[in-house]
Amino acid sequence: MELLALHTLTLSRSTHGRPSPTLTDKTWQQELAIRKLHITLHKNIKRLSGGFFKESTADLKEYHGTSNWQSYCAYINDVLRNIRSGKIDWCYFDFQILDLLKFHYDDLRTRYCGGYWEVWLEK
Fold it and tell me: Which of 60, 70, 74, 85 could join 50 in a cystine, given CB atoms 3.0 to 4.6 angstroms apart?
């Protein structure tokens, strides 16, 4: 039944993680409760890791820089550092919150604020 409810809640929005213009905090809290049932926790891991990235381009020159995954890991780790220090931070995609839940399943709190989410840890 929960999966059907989640499907119904998210069926109308194909926004790739961005909030729907019609989303409310009340609806988000219901959706989050259902999504939490399907989270796999990171045990004994305190942060996301992104390894060094090296890629050859079409002209065989090598690119040495930050990959999209490394940038994403840096963002999530920054949010984790902020909320662990007692601050409120912001997320702009629902999948970011789902990744944070893997580290703080029981104490992560969210509030949808019309285009973004405030996230913090309950003490």
Answer: 70
